[in-house]
C-alpha cells in the first residue's frame, strides 16, 4: 500500500555543522511531517564562527541533480537558499518554469557571521529573472535593501521596499523579515492587495544561525502540505520564535536554533 506524503525540495548550499543550508532545511521539513529532498548548489566549510570556504557545484551538475529528482518524483513545493552564480540560477529557473510548483526564494547573500555567499554579478539576474518565478520571496533587511535599492530603517521603508518588489521587480508576494531591525521581531507579508504583519518579542540571543533558512523551509513545507501562503507564514513565524527561544547553545559563535522546539499543528 502506498502512503501519500507531502514532498518538499530544497536547492541550497550545505553547512557541515547542520545549522543552516540544506541540512537545516531537511530538519525543518522533517519536523513538519514533510518528506525532504535536496539538490546542492555549493558545499561550504563553515561553523558558528564563520564561513571558512566555499566550493560551487558546476551548474551542469546541479542540472543533473534536478533532472534526477524531477524525472522520477515531482515535489509539491520547492525553496532555494544559497545560489552563488547566475549559471545555477538559470538552471533552477528552467525547472520552476517547466514544473510550475510553488517556489519560495530565500535570497541568501550574506551569512549571519557576515560572509558573502553570492557572486555580486548574479544579483541582477536574481532580481530580474529568478524572483518573478517565485510564489514568495523572503529577504531579510540587508537583502531587501540590496534588491529594492533603498535603505530600510523603519516600517515605512519596509512598505516602500515591498512596493518595489511587487510593482517593479514583479514578485507575486514578498515576506520582509525584520530580524535585523530594532525592537520586536516583526515580519511583513505583502501580497497584491493584502498585508499581514506578525510580531514576536525579540529574544536577546546570539544564536540565530540558520533562522532565515529554517523560516523559509517551514513555509515551503506548509505549502507542500497544501496550506495557503498566509497560514504558512504564521506557522513559519511561530516555529522560528520557539526555535530561537530554545536554541541549544552549540558552538563558540552564532549557534544554531532548535528544530525540535515547535509542537503546533
Ligand atoms: N532575536 C530574535 N528574536 C526573535 N525572532 C527573531 C530574532 N532574530 C530573528 N528573528 C526572526 O527570525 C526570522 C529570520 O529573520 P532574520 O534574522 O531577519 O533573517 P536572516 O536569518 O535571513 O538574516 C524572522 O522571522 C525574524 O523575525
Ligand atoms: C549554506 C548556507 N546557506 C545559507 C546561509 C545563511 O544562513 P542564515 O539562515 O543564518 O541567514 C548559510 N550561513 N549557509
TrEMBL record:
EC number: 2.7.1.49, 2.7.4.7
Gene Ontology CC terms: cytosol
Catalytic activity: 4-amino-2-methyl-5-(phosphooxymethyl)pyrimidine + ATP = 4-amino-2-methyl-5-(diphosphooxymethyl)pyrimidine + ADP; 4-amino-5-hydroxymethyl-2-methylpyrimidine + ATP = 4-amino-2-methyl-5-(phosphooxymethyl)pyrimidine + ADP + H(+)
Sequence ranges assigned to domain Pyridoxamine kinase/Phosphomethylpyrimidine kinase in this UniProt record: 15-258
Keywords: ATP-binding, Kinase, Nucleotide-binding, Thiamine biosynthesis, Transferase
Pathway: Cofactor biosynthesis; thiamine diphosphate biosynthesis; 4-amino-2-methyl-5-diphosphomethylpyrimidine from 5-amino-1-(5-phospho-D-ribosyl)imidazole: step 3/3; Cofactor biosynthesis; thiamine diphosphate biosynthesis; 4-amino-2-methyl-5-diphosphomethylpyrimidine from 5-amino-1-(5-phospho-D-ribosyl)imidazole: step 2/3
Alphabetized InterPro entries for the sequence: HMP/HMP-P_kinase_dom, PM/HMP-P_kinase-1, Ribokinase-like
Pfam families linked: Phos_pyr_kin
GO MF, one example: phosphomethylpyrimidine kinase activity
GO biological process, one term: thiamine biosynthetic process
Family per record: Belongs to the ThiD family.
Official protein name in the record: Hydroxymethylpyrimidine/phosphomethylpyrimidine kinase
Organism of this sequence: Lacicoccus alkaliphilus DSM 16010
